[in-house]
Each structure stands twice: as C-alpha cells, then as structure tokens.
Amino acid sequence: QQTQLLEQLRDIHLPDGVSWWPLAIGWWIVIAILITVIVLLIAKAILKKRRQRFARYALRELNEVKHNANADWLMQAHHIMRRASLCYFPKSQVAVMDNKDWVALVSQTGSDIWTQQSLQLLEEGVYRSPDTIDASHQQQFLSEASLWLEQLPDIKQLPAFKPTQLNAEQGGP
Predict the structure, then answer these.
(1) Which pLDDT score is estimated for 158?
(2) Which pLDDT belongs to residue 157?
(3) How far is CA 161 from CA 110, 157, 169, in A?
(4) CA–CA distance from 82 to each of 24, 33, 89, 167, 169 (Å)?
(5) Which of 13, 18, 28, 108 has its CA 20 to 30 A from that of 35?
(6) Which residue has the higher pLDDT, 130 or 20?
C-alpha cells in the first residue's frame, strides 16, 4: 500500500524563472526620469543654438565689414551691434536709448572687452569722418566688436541700467 501511494506521487517541478518583462514599477519610474532628462537636455541645446543664431548672423555681417574696404565701416558696425542688442535685450528699453546710453550699455555688458578708445570711437565715431581713424584702430575696434557679439547670447538679462544714469553722472539733466 505504501508503494502504491508512492507511485502516485509526481516528481518535484521547479517554478518558471522570473521574467524581466513586464518591468516592475520602479524601472518604469527610472525610464521616465531618464527620458525626461534627455528631452530637457535636447530642448536646452536647441534653445541655446537658437539664441546664438542672431549673434552668428551679426558676426557674419561684421566679418564682411572687416574684409570690405568701405569708408563707412564704423557706421555699419554700429548698426550691426545695435540690431544684435535688440535681439538679446528688451526692445522697449534698448530701442529708446540714445547713442550715449547705448554705448554705456555696451560698456557694461562687455566691460572686460572694450578699451576706452574704442568706446569713445563708438560714441563719437558716427559723427566723425572715417578718414580720421587709422587702420590699426579699425581692426582693434572690429575685433572687440566681434568679441562682444560672441558673448552677447550668454548675457542673461539687461544689467541694472537706467537711461538717465549716464546723464546724471556727467552732470546733465
């Protein structure tokens, strides 16, 4: 009778191995976080590339001014810089600035780039004859303008600047 009962027993079957699919909820959370981080990094890179677009166009135009022997190179460089600043700073503040205030803004946003002679040339040069400016200073000014345009997209906001600040410092109205 015991042997009969033993014969009725089946062999021990091991359970199936644990499958990797479907994933546990923790893995889904990790995957969602990774996808979110990747999407955010791609979006940040695209926005940075777009933000630098205007500076690249301005640099291309400024290089054309460097290589052309135009007599009005200073006026062209001034206009290129002014248009580029309108793309990166609030138009409502920059568009209404007169030349002195705008030069003060350029000086503040690129204080380590500009020499005093170049800032003076930027401020007063649009009223001077281009023949009075020597070629070495022209190259220096254009290289400083290029450096300013390159760092322009990295400026996050307009510095604390009031348009009347320059006039008040000079004793004006």
Answers:
(1) 59
(2) 59
(3) 14, 11, 13
(4) 57, 42, 10, 20, 23
(5) 18
(6) 20
CA of residue 27 relative to chain centroid, distance: 36
Asked if 138 and 119 touch (Cβ cutoff 8 Å), the reply is: no
Report H helices in the chain: 2-8, 25-51, 53-67, 73-88, 91-94, 99-109, 116-124, 135-151, 165-169
Q: Please state the pTM of the whole predicted model.
A: 0.67
| Structure tokens, 147 | 């450096």
* Whole-Å CA distances, 104 to 53, 71, 160, 162: 25, 25, 12, 10
Give CA–CA dist 121/19, Å, rounded: 74
- What's the token pair of residue 160? 């604390």
